[in-house]
Amino acid sequence: MSGLPEPTVALSEEQIAFYRKNGYLAIDQITTTEEIERTRAACDGLFTRRAGREEGMEFDLAGTDEDDTKPTLPQIMEPRNYSQALKNTQYESNAINISKQLLGNGIEQRGSHAIFKPAGYGAATPWHQDEACWNPKKNYNSISVWMPLQEATLENGCMQFIPGSHRLEVLNHHHIDHNPKVQGLELDEDQVDLSNAVACPLPSGGATIHGGRVLHYTSPNISDTPRRAFILLFHVPQPPPETRRDFYWQNKTKTFSAEKREATKT
Ligand code: NI
Predict the structure, then answer these.
(1) 131 Rama sector, left if φ>0, alpha if ψ -120 to 50, beta otherwise
(2) Distance, CA 1 to ligand 1 centroid (Å)?
(3) Ligand 1 center to residue 213 CA distance, Å?
(4) How would you write the pLDDT of the chain (266 residues) with one tens digit per residue?
């Protein structure tokens, strides 16, 4: 039996239409202030102790991730495995409800992650499509629900999107800094006009929702507080693509975290 609370948030018809047209959506409230505080404390604790580092689940998304370098964009995959406080939240219940509205019946969870963008020096997450990081042999009908754990502003790195870019194919990407030791990917230049980006500042308790192909970005954190986010992914499994796709940039990946995850499997 699921221990999830009943959902308290549902999208309006207008919000659903906005998502279909633009490939993303911002909502002002997905959970309570009290739950945000609890979630933030739990995530801060995980990042302080670098939960999951040994097994390659904690790593620097924007750097080369040596043990003795200061990470500029630490990320933890599946943080719910490391903290009970992140399980069975009102946020998750509402995110499931929203996913059903946007993706239809048959949704499954695809996982969770948490990102910590440190105050003052937290790095940008460059323009990318999430699907460029995923398996090219699969098709996806998927959404990410991105919930900041404080307000999200232009100064601390709120989400920015290119409206309508969800209709694009997966474009060419490369590793950040063209360095295969860095996990994060960046869109190759000059493929898309990025000048019509829309920034989505959010109050604490709000969230953005985006599909796997919509182009998105967050700026460096130049504020004096960290910018954390806790993200849940959902999908409806799809038949595989009919044509072979070559995400050649993935073949170059050579990160410490990928090596550790591989070693943990055996
Ligand atoms: Ni992304």
Answers:
(1) alpha
(2) 31
(3) 9
(4) 479 999 999 999 999 999 999 999 999 999 999 999 999 999 999 999 999 999 999 999 999 999 999 999 999 999 999 999 999 999 999 999 999 999 998 999 999 999 999 999 999 999 999 999 999 999 999 999 999 999 999 999 999 999 999 999 999 999 999 999 999 999 999 999 999 999 999 999 999 999 999 999 999 999 999 999 999 999 999 999 999 999 999 987 899 999 999 898 86
Tell me the CA–centroid distance for residue 216 and ligand 1, in Å: 6
Spacing, Cα 160 to ligand 1 middle (Å): 11
> Is the pTM for the entire model greater than 0.70?
yes
Q: Which amino acid is at 145?
A: V
User: Cα(112) to centroid of ligand 1, in Å?
Assistant: 12
CA distance 126 to 38: 29
**C-alpha to C-alpha distance for 26 and 96, rounded to whole angstroms:** 16
